């Protein structure tokens, strides 16, 4: 076995590979850019080598620097993770030429499958069902429009070398094709160094289902079941699960056998994923093959018990697969939430900054479930503008889908992050969504269920009552602590608690009577009483305890006269008053929000790529005003109404903070 390997990546996946390598007794080498000097993967590895400036093009995408780091440290093999150089044929060849083993498929398989156009041709030759489309390279917007007109709308414009949702656009008209073609080419060039794009039919109401394959260098290939990845936004996956609630055993076998046939056709010899678009009737068509480890691989590992990173390392070393197809058994259900540094209330725009608080839920058993958290960050670390916005991948595994979803919801409630915006409120809300729970999914789920965008759900019914009780219990604990402060002035009579508490929560009013016995607090509401038990202490960001004997968690942050709460996908400020305080609070005027209707604000920290208007220009609603790039994604900012440009305060190339004023309107 290898004695030392280098991980040509960063963040969560680098940490993930290091964990398995250490378990196998293999020493590890990390590489890092200027921005990642203090990163977690650097700390975890046995050795670390600096490879360049913060932009990926000057560090993680530099093949020569990776090879030099291998020679400097004596690393015998390289695991590429995902993204960056993981699907570059040139990288695998360069390593081979320098006597270094690539922990991934052979260069020929990468060439055949890594190019989305060539992969469709190979799939058709292997008798794998494919989506109608144009597989040639498209040179101009006019050519793209002509092809789209022939195929029929809607169409998908995709980067040939693409992945991770970048360089992809859905178009419903000729105008959208022209703009989507330009954006896809630009993103593809900046992300992959290859601006080729192609066009194919977009299947309406589709599901995204993928098959995990595993091959060795001796001609053996097996499939490890499927993953459902239909919950996406901007063509980037947000939630994944395994197995899929759509498939039956017969369809699973057909998809698996086609995936294996394709892998064998290109002599595939590592872990890889064959992606399919599936109809609600269980029909399916080949999309692409990712010749690398997928972001969502943990859900497959949880239901099969197979460590895919370990298998990749063993196969690269030349070992035969010790697993046959008959050995693959699917056990239970796994759900994964991708925790991103982005603001779901502002159209999921990226967020950067310091992780003032980062406290994930405990890994390990949770009743009949198991919690796993793959991450590459730490409390006090920084989320940079230069790389993917992923913070962590939270995975739960349980005997049934229902149990896995409930465990995921509990784990999300217990996941505390402060200092940046993040998408936990969104994925927590999805866990409570009836359509998600029913398994009636499609890639249009987010657009269809949140057509006006995402806003923090307000608590209702049982959840609201539970949150009101937690707010009163927190207030009671705070008051108890105040009463025990030493050296207080003694009065002529003992201070007693006010037992009646009134909670203003999400526009509702709850009145409860507080009593305490044996460490448990009972809140008597008019409708019923709730008994609360918790060892929560003021200042802790997560409240853990039981409500009527049921274990739950809630996000808790202090605010004036109460706490801000998040639980079961609902979020609200809970103001806790005595009856007299409630009377006085009702008389206080509410502060009006500032008017931002006459300015264009930068919605995320980012780089101004283009200013598309000039001073004095009249602009119609929906027209593009500027383009800002953040975390490798180009974001076009559009006018919300008809305006005239009065001032432009930014210039192209400026790095702007969130809410910086780009321009003013007359």
From TrEMBL:
Its EC number is 6.4.1.3. It comes from the Bacteria. Pathway: Metabolic intermediate metabolism; propanoyl-CoA degradation; succinyl-CoA from propanoyl-CoA: step 1/3. The keyword Magnesium applies. It catalyses: propanoyl-CoA + hydrogencarbonate + ATP = (S)-methylmalonyl-CoA + ADP + phosphate + H(+). It is an enzyme of class 6 (ligase). One of its GO terms (molecular function) is acetyl-CoA carboxylase activity. Its cofactor is biotin. Gene3D superfamilies: 2.40.50.100, 3.30.700.30, ATP-grasp fold, B domain. Residues 590-666 form the Lipoyl-binding domain. This is propionyl-CoA carboxylase. It comes from Bosea eneae.
